[in-house]
Amino acid sequence: MARPRLLPDNFTLSLLAVVILASFLPAQGQTAVAFGWITNLAIGLLFFLHGAKLSSSAIISGMTHWRLHLLVFSCTFIMFPLLGLALKPILSPLVGTELYLGILFLCALPATVQSAIAFTSLARGNIPAAVCSAATSSLLGIFLTPLLVMLLMGAQVQESSTMDAISKIVVQLLLPFIAGQIARHWIGGWVTRNKAWLKYVDQGSILLVVYSAFSNAVVEGIWQQVPLPQLAGLVVACCVLLALALVITDFAGRRLGFNTADRITILFAGSKKSLATGVPMAQVLFTGGTIGMLILPLMLFHQIQLMVCAVLAQRYADRAEETIPVVP
């Protein structure tokens, strides 16, 4: 039986199931402490495998296209934060103060890796440049995201300095990533051969973090704090933010004279935000019940960007060679 086209992917359904589970059976007390340790280990494994999977040669092959990378990084780390701040008069009343802070956190995150590359490939874009931009964005995010979070959100971050936040992320995310890059010499082939099932390690790590975060949030009363109108407003807010990002990245690519393949890469690498990186970062930067509120916008944005970009990628894939599709 064919899968219904409107049915979300299995990972999204798993995220929804974990949120429901945490809502009715949240981890508390010693169970929550145990989940915290397991979650930290899972995050380390997640970034270790990211390092082991990433080909250094693929990154180097795309690094020469500096104009494209500069534009993508500007969209990721400058355009998004500015949009988040500029839209505050509209978004803050629409979703409330706490969810608006979650939108600001979303705006400070790096771009996705896997989905940006996958959509670029489907749309016949510049794949080596997409690999380089997406991977480098994730690495830059380890240092830039805490700085942006401090600038955008200030007092909402844990009681620590910017350097403390960066050092925590370096220890929990960057060091496992570097270890994975080193280990790639010995396990790279095995990781490549087994990538079909290793993706479940990635997804399982994220599900653990989401369960832990939402357990804390439920104990703190998240569903009493977020009424249905605010959730509906959050969906609208995520759609508006994504639409503006797509229009701006498409316009910038055209205005600066990039060819179609490069514009595809700019569109998909510059308009997306990473759930895989954002959830672990929230675990490091924030505490307690606040995490659930802060990652809720990211979870919604993640699903919306996948659905919208899948449609756009298919439009590009179906184009004639001379045709240049226009982002609606």
UniProtKB/TrEMBL annotation:
Species the sequence originates in: Halopseudomonas pelagia
Pfam families from the UniProt entry: SBF_like
Keyword entries, A-Z: Membrane, Transmembrane, Transmembrane helix
A Gene Ontology term for the protein's cellular component: plasma membrane
PANTHER family named among the record's database cross-references: SODIUM_BILE ACID COTRANSPORTER 7, SOLUTE CARRIER FAMILY 10 MEMBER 7
Top-level taxon: Bacteria
Protein name, UniProt field: Bile acid:sodium symporter
Keyword Transmembrane in record: yes
TM stretches of this protein: 37-56, 68-87, 99-119, 131-153, 165-183, 204-225, 231-253, 274-300
